[in-house]
């Protein structure tokens, strides 16, 4: 079913995994009166490419909520991760939870090819894109690139015929997003699928 996602007067018409059209919402709906409409607060963007794929998904353990009493809720890294020494199955669960954190921050792709099968599988199943990178980027790895002190990279512009991958942030305009951070994300779409929406 054709779906129009709209925020701030702009819209993206999605047909399956592809973008059918981009433009003012009123024009899109006038040309597609039968489309399902998803209205979001804020601004519609191409979504973020998180530069710290391996660091966040392979060099960190994201505790299961059932482990919170023992391990807390924040990612475990470094010596604490080495001492934990999670088995492959636990690493797979961690990677899936890490991917969900990224989606909740408007991430549509990660930089850095995953090396471990469990992480590759989690990334593939979620539909996250993977782009190459040259070495480890500066900054502190974070699901929110605005908080990392490193590069903030947007995915390519939204265009008709391109993949339906984008994110919506609940800010008045993009100029406010660095101050609010990527946790202002209210929706992330990958290949036409709504993979994250804020509660």
Describe this structure in words.
This protein has 199 residues and is an alpha+beta fold. Helices cover 29% and strands 29% of the residues. The protein has eight helices and 14 strands. Strands 3-2-1-4 form a four-stranded mixed β-sheet. Helix 5 runs parallel beside helix 6. The mean pLDDT is 92.
Brief overview, please?
With 199 residues, this protein is α+β, with helices and mostly antiparallel strands.
Strand order of the largest sheet: 3-2-1-4
How big a fraction of the residues is strand? Answer: 25-35%
Biggest sheet layout: 4 strands, mixed
Provide the helix percentage. Answer: 25-40%
Quaternary structure of the protein: single chain
Rg is 18 Å
User: Mean of the pLDDT scores?
Assistant: 92
Characterize the overall form: elongated
Low-confidence stretches: none
Straight-line N-to-C gap: 24 Å
The helix-strand sequence is: EEEHEEEHEHEHHEHEHEEHEE
- The total count of strands amounts to 14
Number of helices: 8
Question: Structural class given helices, strands, pairing?
Answer: alpha+beta
Summarize the topology.
Layout: E1 3-7, E2 10-15, E3 18-24, H1 25-31, E4 36-39, E5 43-45, E6 48-50, H2 53-57, E7 60-61, H3 68-71, E8 76-77, H4 78-84, H5 88-103, E9 107-111, H6 117-126, E10 129-131, H7 145-148, E11 153-154, E12 166-169, H8 177-180, E13 185-190, E14 193-197
Helix pairs in contact: 5-6
List keywords for this structure.
alpha+beta, elongated, 199 residues, 4-stranded antiparallel β-sheet, 4-stranded mixed β-sheet
């Amino acid at each position: 079913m054709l779906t129009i996602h709209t925020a701030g007067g702009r819209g993206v018409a999605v047909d399956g995994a592809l973008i059918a059209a981009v433009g003012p919402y009123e024009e899109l709906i006038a040309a597609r009166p039968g489309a399902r409409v998803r209205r979001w607060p804020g601004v519609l963007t191409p979504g973020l490419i998180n530069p710290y794929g391996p660091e966040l998904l392979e060099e960190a353990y994201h505790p299961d909520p059932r482990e919170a009493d023992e391990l807390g809720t924040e990612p475990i890294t470094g010596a604490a991760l080495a001492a934990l020494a999670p088995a492959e199955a636990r690493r797979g669960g961690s990677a899936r939870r890490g991917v969900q954190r990224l989606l909740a921050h408007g991430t549509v792709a990660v930089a850095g090819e995953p090396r471990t099968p469990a992480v590759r599988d989690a990334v593939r199943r979620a539909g996250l894109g993977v782009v190459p990178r040259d070495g480890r980027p500066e900054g502190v790895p974070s699901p929110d690139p605005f908080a990392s002190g490193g590069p903030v990279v947007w995915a390519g512009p939204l265009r008709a015929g391109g993949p339906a991958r984008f994110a919506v942030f609940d800010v008045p305009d993009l100029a406010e997003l660095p101050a609010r951070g990527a946790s202002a994300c209210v929706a992330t779409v990958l290949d036409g699928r709504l993979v994250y929406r804020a509660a």
